[in-house]
Design brief:
mainly beta, about 10% helix, single chain, about 35% strand
Amino acid sequence: MRIVTAIAVSSVLWFTAAPGYTPAAHGASPDYDWPLQPRPSVTRPFDPPEHDWLLGHRGVDLSGSIGQVVRSAAAGTVVFAGAVGGKPVVSVDHEGGLRTTYEPVTASVTPGRRIARGEPIGTLEPGHEGCPVSACLHWGLRRDRDDYLDPLPLVRPTVIRLEPV
């Protein structure tokens, strides 16, 4: 009975933790792929702030190289391609109210353009603060205006471990 209860509680927590954020229940979403190829290493993980106004890391940093092609993680519509705070950024809206952002990326696309998963959206530039390699891609994900999410579950299988109750 304890195992059944643990599974039920885990399932409820898993499916209610992020409504509308539905990578496959036990793995990566088949609709998303890594924005850099080959699969990059994560140099800095997602670290959301406790409150919206506090410092945090609202995305992940992926190791890359200067001039490397950056690809859209999923099909969508380019909604922004320009500079924010002097840094080149590309943002893409996807089904389900999700938006991915890519920085520092010099855009090869323009706002309003429909793109496919894996389609090039620009090239990676140097200068991302705190990057331990020649260039890092800051890859962000959000739902709605201020709900920042970790993009890694979109491309990485999620491991669920049940512990005794």
